[in-house]
Amino acid sequence: MFQTVMIADDSMPMHALIKAQLCAEHLRFHSVYDGTAAVSLAASLQPDLILLDLDMPKMDGFEALPAN
Questions:
Q1: Could you say which of 20, 30, 35, 46 would form a disulfide bridge with 64 (CB–CB 3.0 to 4.6 Å)?
Q2: Torsion (CA) 48, 39, 17, 56 in degrees, nearest 10
Q3: 10-19, long-range: CB < 8 A, 24+ apart
């Protein structure tokens, strides 16, 4: 069974690096490139793991984190 990982980072090379390092694992990756998209996708996808960059456009990683 595949685990779902969401990568939220504005750096395309970082997405490629993470995917390359974890390619042997049973993971399904979803990528977003800003905080606003991260909040939206996380709500609908409910991934098993979110790798969240803190310095992104539109909404940074701190703002994207839920308050509770």
A1: 35
A2: -150
A3: 10/34, 10/53, 10/55, 10/56, 10/57, 11/53, 14/53, 18/51
Q: Which residue has the tokens 């790798």?
A: 51
Q: Give the CATH number, domain containing residue 38.
A: 3.40.50.2300
How would residue 60 be classed by pLDDT, with cut points 50, 70 and 90?
A: confident
Instruction: Provide the pLDDT confidence category of residue 67 given band limits of 50, 70 and 90.
Output: low
Rounded to whole angstroms, how far apart are CA atoms 6 and 45? 9
Look up the domain containing 10 and give its range.
Answer: 3-64
